[in-house]
């Protein structure tokens, strides 16, 4: 018998709470950093600072989606966490191969080196958690 939405394991239970807390910290940190950079020195590195803002939006949406219930929230969580992983891999690779294109670091530069590589590990854990808590 198929599980109903109410019987599915929620992403916001158990270890999922820690995952959501880490996403929340990154949402606040990335939003504050991007906001400051855009407000004070956007002309110095517009691509880098725009990518930081994109990362901030992704972290905010992922936090909300992971903390929420329902099919839409789950799809949004998959999309945002998957997008985050792609962003970290693409931006990380570009900043390693040609650092001159990014005169200022983003959250995802060099695979999140400035944040202890948490931006690289976080989406992997997020995708694992979403898979683990999926319906039977």
How would you describe the overall organization of this protein?
This protein is mostly helical and 136 residues long. It contains four helices and no strands. It has helices at 15-41, 46-67, 71-97, 118-132. Helix 1 (15-41) runs antiparallel to helix 2 (46-67), helix 1 (15-41) runs antiparallel to helix 4 and helix 2 (46-67) packs antiparallel against helix 3. The chain is elongated and about 45 Å long. The termini are close together.
List keywords for this structure.
136 residues, mainly alpha, 4 helices, elongated
Element-by-element helix/strand order: HHHH
Q: Structural class of the secondary structure composition? A: mainly alpha
- The coarse overall form would be elongated
> Approximately how much beta-strand content do the residues carry?
under 5%
Query: Would you tell me the overall average pLDDT?
Result: 90
* C-alpha termini separation: 9 Å
Work out the number of β strands.
0
Give a brief rundown of this model.
The chain is an all-alpha fold and 136 residues long. The chain contains four helices and no strands.
């Amino acid at each position: 018998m198929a599980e109903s939405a109410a019987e599915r394991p929620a992403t916001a239970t158990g270890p999922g709470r820690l995952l959501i807390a880490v996403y929340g910290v990154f949402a606040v940190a990335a939003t504050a950093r991007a906001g400051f950079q855009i407000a004070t020195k956007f002309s110095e590195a517009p691509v880098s600072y725009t990518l930081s803002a994109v990362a901030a939006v992704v972290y905010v949406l992922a936090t909300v989606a992971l903390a929420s219930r329902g099919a839409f929230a789950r799809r949004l969580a998959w999309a945002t966490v998957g997008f985050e992983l792609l962003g970290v891999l693409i931006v990380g690779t570009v900043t390693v191969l040609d650092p001159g294109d990014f005169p200022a670091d983003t959250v995802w530069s060099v695979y999140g080196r400035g944040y202890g590589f948490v931006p690289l590990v976080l989406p992997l854990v997020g995708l694992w958690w979403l898979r683990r808590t999926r319906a039977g």
